[in-house]
Amino acid sequence: xxxxxxxxxxxxxxxxxxxxxxxxxxxxxxxxxxxxxxxxxxxxxxxxxxxxxxxxxxxxxxxxxxxxxxxxxxxxxxxxxxxxxxxxxxxxxxxxxxxxxxxxxxxxxxxxxxxxxxxxxxxxxxxxxxxxxxxxxxxxxxxxxxxxxxxxxxxxxxxxxxxxxxxxxxxxxxxxxxxxxxxxxxxxxxxxxxxxxxxxxxxxxxxxxxxxxxxxxxxxxxxxxxxxxxxxxxxxxxxxxxxxxxxxxxxxxxxxxxxxxxxxxxxxxxxxxxxxxxxxxxxxxxxxxxxxxxxxxxxxxxxxxxxxxxxxxxxxxxxxxxxxxxxxxxxxxxxxxxxxxxxxxxxxxxxxxxxxxxxxxxxxxxxxxxxxxxxxxxxxxxxxxxxxxxxxxxxxxxxxxxxxxxxxxxxxxxxxxxxxxxxxxxxxxxxxxxxxxxxxxxxxxxxxxx
Length: 450
What we know:
The protein is an alpha/beta fold. It starts with 5 loop residues before the first strand and ends with a strand. The longest helix is centred in the first third of the chain and has 19 residues, at about 85-105. It is about 25% helix and about 30% strand. It has helices at about 85-105, 165-180, 220-230, 285-300, 315-320, 335-350, 360-370, 390-400, 410-420, and strands spanning about 5-10, 15, 20-25, 25-30, 40-45, 50-60, 115, 130-135, 140-145, 155, 195-200, 205-215, 235-245, 255-260, 265-270, 270-275, 305-310, 330-335, 355-360, 375-380, 400-405, 425-430, 440-450. Strand 17, helix 5 (about 315-320) and strand 18 form a beta-alpha-beta unit. The protein has three domains: about 5-65, CATH 2.40.50.140; about 90-120 and about 285-450, Rossmann fold (3-Layer(aba) Sandwich); about 130-270, CATH 2.40.50.1070. The protein is built from nine helices and 23 strands.
């Protein structure tokens, strides 16, 4: 088998990243853009000992679920746009099933996997855009995302998953950067000033924050740029400058300065008010976040005499959302700024039954228990890496009667359930589509003590 060789394949299913999976002489072959049921011609691009990677050359027999994508860009965030939305929802349920079959937690064959909760209109949902800005050889200012697996920047004059206001602001800024000839970052030489533009929209207030990420604190033409933003984009209520001097793929530097307006954005989720600092994490899809948190609320079914521990609490979103039903909520996170924001958000929303502490959940929870806190319920919402192994041990020692796991990665969820299922049974897994047109899925897992 050599690169460049052409194969005829029948695609059997989609892999966890949304790529088509076929078999050539029993060797698994991944083909980006191919769909289950299709007969295709593919060209081998990489040969690995146990699998092949191939590019799609021709579709001999298309899937009934193939649709014309709205966006025609080769970037991440739209990898399933060629798949009809009902089939995307079914795929997201199947991804969880695949992960369970791989890790085999106790009783997994009998888990109730509920159909994925999707959107009525699965576009224009992202409240935040972080686009790199560069100048082409011909002198054109472009803003967008990197082509997958490369450092070639793809200009995005439109992007259907972004909220319209974020794109309006982004494209106006592109014009203003050209007008004022702002020196843009050049990656190879590590010269120039402006690297990235981050726009975040508040749905509740219908306004936005702009963060300009620069290589140095020096910012030529900044005053002219800000004056034009104020006159042309009245929706922008906050302009910040983040300084990232490193030659790195990391978006943010350590220092953030206020240039104009508020130093935060105000957002609302149900009855909860949030103040979001430039770097504060907040879900990218506000309408589906409410769907997700309503599922968490339902799964926890908190009573007036019960206390909840919210591990990986971030800026307090889940705990504050469910707090009115509980006696007390205890939130813990390792990021001090997040806990600061959580305390502020609690005050904004008049939540007096919440307590927040900075630290690792696996250390803070036992300390709380020693102080007499009786955790009747636990909610965890870890990053894609899943639960810390030590935290799993802590959970199995403390054994709260009610337990809800919010996962953004089916693989680490299934891995964690291997240990957790020794003490807990999985009542059901409810998948929620937070990122339509992508292969990503969130899940709310309701567990109860065996």
